[in-house]
Amino acid sequence: MDALLLHTQPASQTSTVEAELNYLAPGNARPVNYTFEPPAGTPWSSGKIDARRVTIHNARPLAEAGEISLDRNGFQLVSHRSAVSDFSDDTLIRCVYRPEAEALLRNLTGAEKVIVFDHTIRDSANGSHANPALRLPARRVHNDQTFVSGPRRVLDHLDAEEAQQRLQHRFAIVNLWRPLRVVEQLPLALCDARSIAAADLVPSDHVYRDQTGETFSFLANPQHRWYFFPRLRPDEVLLLKIYDSLEDGTARLTAHTAFEDPTSQADAPARRSIELRALLFWPASKDTPIRARAAIT
Asked: How many Cα neighbours within 13 Å face the side chain of 146?
């Protein structure tokens, strides 16, 4: 594994693109998303789509200038080369990739404990809704946890005594997203956390075979500021803030979605990527008291 590098490559010539993003239409019942084939006649995802054409800015120049960070914007680009070259081998992912990702997140954030609890491989050509081992890119604006489900993850992955201790201090959920080839099709759009209002968030059911989780869908808001990193490479990773217990102005979450890049070639290779979801815990000396839940800033 290469040493951590915080600099990016020269920016693409594309400064902005115009593209449609799939928001949730207002006035819907609580959305429901299935992770397995739903009962006959039930859609994989409910809730009418509100497709909005938005401007998506190239974030590479801002990243190079040090103006993008996980705690300010809700996302961050990091240069990092994995020791794993074969991501079709689940044993390598669990025994090599997950530990190196945990080490990377500890080094980047100062967290004293990191637990990777999930990973997903996505392929725009060969993935499917029905295959948990190989998913399609997610095409709706969303965030993977809510202010309710985030703390539940702590209870899911720690014993009861440690969980209660950890819940008293700062913890977060961060996704580490890596392309497995240069991204030319269906890149990831990321919303600046500072442009998200509490009224934009819609709790949604995320149904597994054995339980129901909760995610956020998003209503459209013209104040949203969208960014992407053109032609991401396998030696680059994106960090996405999914949940943060701090309520002091730190980014608590962000919205993200795959989108059709109008500058992509018609015969561009399929997008293939892997994302890890991790719990991060800080010692008491590194946080601020957790207050009652409030709107994000």
From this structure: 17
Do 187 and 256 contact (CB within 8 A), yes or no?
Answer: no
Residue 177: φ, ψ to 5°: -115, 125
227 contacts 192 by C-beta, under 8 angstroms: yes
Angle at the Cα of 27 (from 26 to 32), degrees rounded to 5? 85
Domain boundaries, the chain: 52-286
Q: What residues contact 290, with CB distance under 8 A and at least 6 apart?
A: 167, 168, 169, 170, 245, 246, 247
173, 277 in Cβ contact below 8 A?
A: yes
What is residue 83's DSSP assignment? S
Q: Which of 32, 273, 278, 277 is nearest to 136 (CA)?
A: 273
- Count CB-CB contacts under 10 A for residue 5: 12
For the whole model, what pTM was predicted? 0.91
Q: Using 50, 70 and 90 to split pLDDT, how confident is the model at 71?
A: very high
Q: Provide the 8-state DSSP code for 97.
A: I
- Any idea which fold 52-286 has? Jelly Rolls (2.60.120)
Q: What is the pLDDT of residues 247-288, one digit of tens each?
A: 999 999 999 999 999 999 999 999 999 999 999 999 987 554
Nearest to 143 by CA among 231, 245, 213: 213
Contact criterion met (CB below 8 Å) for 144 and 262: no
Least Cα distance to 43 among 30, 34, 51 occurs for: 34
Q: Which residues, at least 6 apart from 90, have a Cβ–Cβ distance to it below 8 Å?
A: 133
C-alpha count within 13 angstroms, C-beta hemisphere, residue 250: 17
H/E run at residue 275 = strand 272-281
Nearest of 7, 17, 11, 15 to residue 231 by alpha carbon? 11
- Alpha-carbon separation of residue 184 from 53, 61, 226 (angstroms): 20, 19, 18
In angstroms and rounded to an integer, the radius of gyration of the C-alpha atoms of the chain is 18
